[in-house]
Specification:
The chain is an alpha/beta fold. It has two domains: about 180 residues, FAD/NAD(P)-binding domain (3-Layer(bba) Sandwich); about 100 residues, FAD/NAD(P)-binding domain (3-Layer(bba) Sandwich). It contains six helices and 16 strands. Strands 1, 2, 3, 4, 5, 6 and 16 form a seven-stranded mixed β-sheet that branches. A four-stranded parallel β-sheet has the order 10-9-8-14, with helices on one face. A three-stranded antiparallel β-sheet has the order 11-12-13, with no helix packed on it. A hairpin with a 2-residue loop joins strand 4 and strand 5. The longest helix is centred in the last third of the chain and has 21 residues. It starts with a strand and ends with a helix. About 40% of the residues are buried.
């Protein structure tokens, strides 16, 4: 059987993957880009972007669309594929997905991260029935209700600010009194009259009925006391895990699952590149993702030309 071997395959169409595609197109390289969701990655669930050079303020979905429009203007099509495994045969990679098997001389992984679960009773049962990992997406469903946001990083506080202007009340639950979010965001949220903070608390169970979530049981980590907060929705923001399980055939990840790369964004496996939030790094931002994409695109193009 004759295999069509793509010179370069990009897996993921967030800011990192789309930047790589733009740079490869401008270099007249032959490549393909696929994603299992809509192009844009987490930009699609980001309310405001105010730290991207050259743009004072823009919504995440609008920035994602602008990047996607740039791809379209270059004649780049984003294909659909949920990659579940990558192996290597001779001098090319075999990419197994739910749609088809692809073959490539070089692969650029740009799959980002997946929201971490609370792993408490009721979470799985009520996912889609009051438990959601995107307050911006689903907050408008609870305009007349109280909701709970769990976490204190930038994502949690940004989404809390957004929904506080929509819903009746917002309960913030965090395991200690320190916030990982920017101080300006925290102060803005603290000034909202319909926001209550439950610090030094952790969620222990999500309760509900046949219609969905009705309340959340939380426990104080200092004195062990507990209480039940009546809410109609729960939005956990307790961190993210690298979406890179499909790389299990290769020893290219750290103990937390994030991909290790060199200065050219290449892993220890020749021809296997990785970019964006899926990488081990200290800062995960749109601007750092686009940086990775540009570097990997040119490096991957040089790699395949040497083959």
């Amino acid at each position: 059987m004759n295999k069509e071997i793509i010179p370069i395959l990009i897996i993921g169409a967030g800011p990192a993957g789309m930047t790589a595609a733009i740079y490869l197109s401008r270099a007249n390289a032959t490549f393909k880009i696929v994603d299992k969701y809509a192009p844009g990655g987490k930009m699609n669930i980001t309310q405001h972007v105010e730290n991207y050079p050259g743009i004072e303020t823009i919504s995440g979905p609008d920035l994602a669309f602008k990047m996607f429009e740039q791809l379209r203007s270059l004649g780049i099509e984003v294909g659909y594929a949920d990659v579940n495994k990558i192996t290597k045969e001779d001098d090319y990679f075999v990419i197994h997905s739910d749609e088809e098997t692809l073959y490539a001389k070089a692969v650029i992984v740009a799959t980002g991260t997946q929201e971490r679960k609370l792993k408490i009773p009721g979470e799985a049962r009520y996912t889609g029935k009051g438990v959601s990992y995107c307050a911006i997406c689903d907050g408008n469903l609870y305009k007349n209700d109280a909701i709970m946001i769990i976490g204190a990083g930038n994502s949690a506080i940004e989404e809390a600010l957004f929904v506080s202007k929509i819903v009746k009340h917002v309960h913030i639950v965090h395991r200690n009194e320190r916030f990982r979010a920017d101080e300006s965001l925290v102060n803005e949220l603290k000034a909202m009259p319909n926001v209550t903070f439950h610090l030094n608390y952790i969620p222990v169970e999500i309760l509900g009925d046949t219609k969905g979530v009705t309340s959340v049981a939380i426990k104080n980590v200092i004195d062990g006391t507990d209480k039940v907060i009546e809410v109609k929705a729960v939005f956990p923001f307790v961190g993210s895990d690298a979406s890179a399980d499909f790389l299990s055939e290769f020893d290219v990840r750290d103990d937390k699952g994030f991909v290790l790369v060199n200065e050219e964004m290449m892993t220890s496996v020749a021809g296997l590149f990785s970019i964006g939030d899926v990488n081990q790094k200290v800062l995960r931002q749109i601007v750092t993702a686009t940086n990775d994409g540009a570097i990997a695109a040119l490096a991957a193009n040089r790699f395949v030309k040497r083959k």
